[in-house]
Structures are given as C-alpha cells and as structure tokens.
Amino acid sequence: MKTADVLIIGGGIIGCSIAAELSRAQVRVLMLERDRIGCEASGEAAGMLAPQAEDIPSGPFLDHCLKSREMFGPLQELLKEETGIDIEYVRSGILYLLLTEDDEFQGRRMFDEQRARGLKVERWDRQQVLEAQPQVTPTVRGAFYFPDDHQVQNARMVRALSILGARRGVQIMEGAPVTGFVQDKDRVLGVRSVAETYYAGKVVIAAGAWSGGIGELPGQQIPIQPARGQLLSLETRGDFFRHILYTREAYLVPRPNGELIVGSTVEFAGFEKHVTVGGIEALLAAARRLVPALGSRPILKAWAGFRPWTPDELPYLGDIPGSPGLYIASGHYRNGILLAPVTGQLMAELLLEEQSSLPLDPFRLNR
After folding, report:
1. Based on the domain organization, do 66 and 194 belong to the same domain?
2. pLDDT in the model for residue 239
3. Cα–Cα distances in angstroms (integers) from residue 241 to residues 26, 246, 260, 293, 299, in the given order
4. Which domain holds residue 258?
C-alpha cells in the first residue's frame, strides 16, 4: 500500500506546479500521470504569457493572471539554479496588430481600459510598426504594444518543475491512469490505478481536459470539455521577429532557436487529436496575411492539443463540495501556462490550510 499526504492526478504544468510548491513544505506528495509528464497541452502550447493581449476583463481572474505573470522572473532563476534548465522566459512584448477598421475600434477600447487599470500599453502608428517589424504586411494600420506580455518555453518549464519536485521528494508515477476512487461514504481516501491503490489525506484533480471524466469516477459533475487547438511551426532565420505578433485570427510566437509558432484554432471535436487540412490552411493563410514573406519558409511540424474549457472560461480551484478530501485545479483553458505559478501557490496554501493570498471563491466548482 502506497500513501501520501497529497495525491495529485495529472502531470501537466498545473499538477507539477502544485507539487513543486508543496514540496517546499516537506509534504509527502504523490503525482499520478496517465501517460508521460507534460505530454498533453502543457507541452504543446505556444507559451504566451498574455493577459493583456488576451483582453481579459477586470476582476479576480485578471488579478490572478497579472500576479502569475509577475512570478515568472523569479521562477526562471529558481528553476535554472535548482535544475540547470533554462525555461527561456523571454521578455519579448506583444504587438497587437491592427489590420481593419474594426481592429482599430476594438484596440482603442482595449487601450483605454488597460490604461485605466494602470497597465502598460503603447499606441504605435503604421510607421513605428514597420520600423520595428519590417516583415509585417504594409497594409497594417498600426498596433498596440504590450511590453509586459512575454513568453516561455512551456515544455522546458514542465520538465523543470517536475525535476524540481522530484529532487525535493515528490514521487512521480508515469503510465498510471486513475481508474477509480477509494471512498468511505462520501469522503475520498485515495485512488485506484491499473496496478496499485494509493491512499492520501487529500486528492487533487489536475488532469486538464481529462478532469471531467476523472470527476465522474467519484460521482462528481465537472463541466470541463476538450477544446482542440491546432498549431504549426515554421523555420525562420535568426532575428526574423523581435516581438510576438498577435491578431484576433492568429498569433506568431518567435522562439529563441529561430522556430516560429503559429496558432491557433479553437475546435470542439472531442478527443480527436489530429490536425486537419482546413485548420492548417487557415493558420498558414493568416500567417501569410500578417507576414507575406513567411510563404517561403519551411514548415517544421504541425500538431494539436486539448485545452481544458469550462462554460464561463474560468478555472476551477478549490475543494469539491460533496466529496471531502477531494480538490480540483483545472479548467484553465487558454491560460494554463500563464497561471501555473499562481495556481501552484494558491493550491498549496489551500492544501496546507494557510491564508490564501488571492481569493478562490470566484473559482469554486459550484459557482
């Protein structure tokens, strides 16, 4: 029989962040991953840290996003020192390009609202955009620049967090899908996997798009669905871009190694994890409209991942009513990479029964 203080279901970036935070307090943590650490959305995202470009409205969710964005600088230093892995936290800023009259209207609203919140945003005219990014289409009307929105190499970040946790005593079991829960009436005492039963004082569902199915095992309704996102990458030469380019139909994320990530679709196709002709055609067309010169660049790869979508597009954080001992940290949808640091901190505070540094009530499952 294997036991732990806290058992985490899911070895994505959220689960790894929670485990790493708990390990600081010398809590016995066991993490079960049905496949490999970071093998799903956490390793397949574009790595943008973009609460401003995503136009997140004022409120508790934006507060969480902004707090988490601030945590990446210190986190990068910690992970590099503890694991030797550079998560490539690049302070590139994001250019929100204005291509149409409607873009300009929406952009002015974003500019006014974000300035009113005290966030940094700059208005660039067409000449400024083309001076900074000469490859952008000459039909661009202007842009808004968000200097505090950045990027990270998400696959490296998941790996670094898992290594950090393991070195601090977190037990990680890969290839261990959860098949059932151990319960005494409603109280959750542990989980069953394919070949083992595990007991823990507290169990956390952090299984991303699969969290809804996991919740059904103890009889809980967790309204999370997979939202497929198709992406592709192109080969560029050196400093092809200096900033992330963002529009309402596509984004271009330049990685330090010269790879350019183009994303992304949002499709509700169940767990059909394949790229489609239509999806890739749409991404390529959007990329070429933004930067015509991309038409001559080699395609490196195309792939798809599943974002965990919730009906109001907000995550679920906290205990699960009706199942004492069971908790959830899932449903982060488009912002799982961004929210990983603050989610790890807040869930660790909750599980350790400490005062929460930010409110969790707006993210309860039964909101």
Report:
1. yes
2. 65
3. 43, 12, 9, 12, 17
4. 94-148+225-309
Instruction: Using CA atoms of 293, 297, 303, 308 in order, give the dihedral in degrees to the nearest 10.
Output: -30
Largest CA distance in the chain: 67
Please tell me whether residues 202 and 317 are part of one structural domain. Answer: yes
The answer to whether 158 and 12 are in contact (CB under 8 A) is yes
- pLDDT tops 90 at residue 354: yes
Which candidate, 116, 160, 146, 132, places its Cα nearest to that of 20? Answer: 160
Residue 240 has pLDDT above 80, yes or no: no
Question: What are the phi and psi torsion angles at 27 (to 5°)?
Answer: -80, 140
Average pLDDT over residues 204-228: 97
Neighbours of 88 (CB within 10 A): 17
Kind and range of the H or E run holding 305: strand 299-309
Which phi and psi (to 5°) does residue 172 adopt?
Answer: -115, 125
Same domain, 50 and 160: yes
Report in angstroms the alpha-carbon separations of 319 from 14, 182, 366. 16, 17, 10
Q: Which residues, 6+ apart, have CB-to-CB distance to 43 below 8 Å?
A: 154, 155, 158
Burial of 147 (0-12, 13-18, 19+ CB in 10 A): middle
What is the separation, in whole angstroms, between the first and last Cα of the chain? 36
Q: Is 0.85 topped by the overall pTM? A: yes
Q: How confident is the model at residue 26 (pLDDT cuts 50, 70, 90)?
A: confident
* Alpha carbon separation from 16 to 133, 206, 352 (Å, rounded): 36, 9, 17
Nearest to 49 by CA among 8, 100, 1, 88: 88
Q: Find residue 184's DSSP bridge partners.
A: 187
Structure tokens, 55: 């136009």
Residues 76 and 190 in one domain: yes
- What are the structure tokens assigned to 24, written together? 């600081």
Q: Dump pLDDT digits (tens) for 145-164.
A: 999 999 999 999 999 999 99
